Fold each of these.
Amino acid sequence: MRVRTALAAGALIAVAVAPLAQARGADGVSVHGHGTVAEDSTVTLSGTYRCTDDTAGPVFVSATLRQGNRSAGIGGTRAICDGHLREWVNTSVVKDPAYRPGAAHVEARLVQLTTGGTGLPTPGFLATAESDVELH
């Protein structure tokens, strides 16, 4: 009887834990297909991300916007690494020359900063996504 009870308890634990493991998923990042450019040259980009572990160091969502021969980093959002799908929004004022409404390209990355051998933060890339976007 004890063996049967132990097996049943083990099966219940496995059934209870399995959905949590699947819900957590792997690290990933995506870019929404649109962004905005305000009159004061403020650029806003967004998307989604998921990260599962930030115990080695903080994780950020970085974005690079390209339009024509112009390229600039747009903000950096601190990620919450709890395995849930979350939204990110990065904003920066970019002038000289400013971005304009129209077609552009975005590369987003999940970047984890860890302490290197010199004591300085070293970036590690957990996930990368690229997407064409329309700036409005």
Amino acid sequence: MTQAQPPQRPTTPSVRRGRTSSKDESGGSQGSGSGVLAIKGRLVEWHAMTDDQRTAAWAGLVEWVAWLHDRYELSIQSRLPECWPLHPGIIEELWTLKMWREALYTTDTESGVLTGHEAGGLAQHARYWHTDLRNLMGQMTFYAERCAAEHGGGRRLADRSKTDLKAGWLTADPTCGIAAPAASAEAAPTRVRRLDAADMHRRLGLGSARGLDGPDSDHVHSFGDWWARDPEAGDWVKITDPEMHRRLDNLAATEPEH
């Protein structure tokens, strides 16, 4: 079925800080907290990266862990084993903490928020991040029971050993020689491509969907996707054409809040 074309309007993009919504994929609430991050896509597994991607990602993780070590005094009370690159579970924990923090924090004061409703919501999620960090450091023996770091007083990474620990970390293999899991014999489930009118109406009512021209628009944005109304079937079709998705994003950026 041919997808309906969006209305023709100027496509000059503009910067706008929209509010985020704490709704799940079906439109339900995930809690009363505000400022929930809207993140589209998935993290890439180490074994799914190309060699160049893995090298760059690993170097980035090592740099980040070195910063984390000093910023959060991880040498105190043996919080982070020096041999963390040899423990695949610790690698995965640190990798996800890094990705999560980068989704929360920015050094760009033009795009960041300092006060108000959005800042409060993000700060709440930053507290969740710190709770997870403390939990990981407090339970590091789960992965490295006999590999506790040297007990010290919060010394900097460069002062902790005569050897260059960071250089040693860089030469480690992030997969630790563990092959990817075998592909399932069953076909992976496909994402929903159609949404019935009642579900879309519910999303619009909950605020987890927003029409391009208001609630009666033929084009609606919800959870990072654009949907077009199908007048024949009476339901909604997910727009998968990247160019059409881009045009709608540009139109939405120039559209005043309803």
Amino acid sequence: MNDLVFMHGLNEEPYTTDKIIAECSKNQLHAIKVLIYNHKQDLEDFGVLSFEMTKPIKGSKGGRPQKTYHLNEQQSTLLITYLDNTPEVNQFKKNLVREFYRMKKELTQRQINRAIGKPQRKSLTDAIKEWSNAPKHCYVNMTQLLLKRATGGLTAQQIKKQRHVKVALDGLTLPEQERYKQLENIAIGLVGLNKTWNEIKGILLLA
């Protein structure tokens, strides 16, 4: 049931794709795209019918980009009503409802965590301003280090690209948010003790 619903950033609603609907309902992708085309106006009553152009998988024939539709909860629910009620379709309906609920719950918690984390972020900024041992570009370097430790090695740019967000911190999952908060607290304490950058980096790499 994993990877049925996706989320880009904290200000965009969760969505599924025509590919997911086709695969999980045991229908041809072309048939799902035809349904979307035929019911486009109805689907747009529930929001913009967005899409992305994706490159074909390496090794497949043809090199033309393919349009992949992104459907929000209401759009995907409506689209499924146009499918035959096979056992696969009925099971997929239940799975999709659960995943949309789970993802919306996670989105809300991530938004709350980001709001709670902003004062702490300011505490780190203020601590760095008073840090007599601060090297050049220490704030940027500190942020990169915290992000890499929280995500298992991803830089800010990699997070933005892979998770389609404008601000790297908006792309962190709930466990990554908790990890980042932990590490940031450690960093604030070490800066307050006027440790050197190398000392702080060494401790954070072991934390």
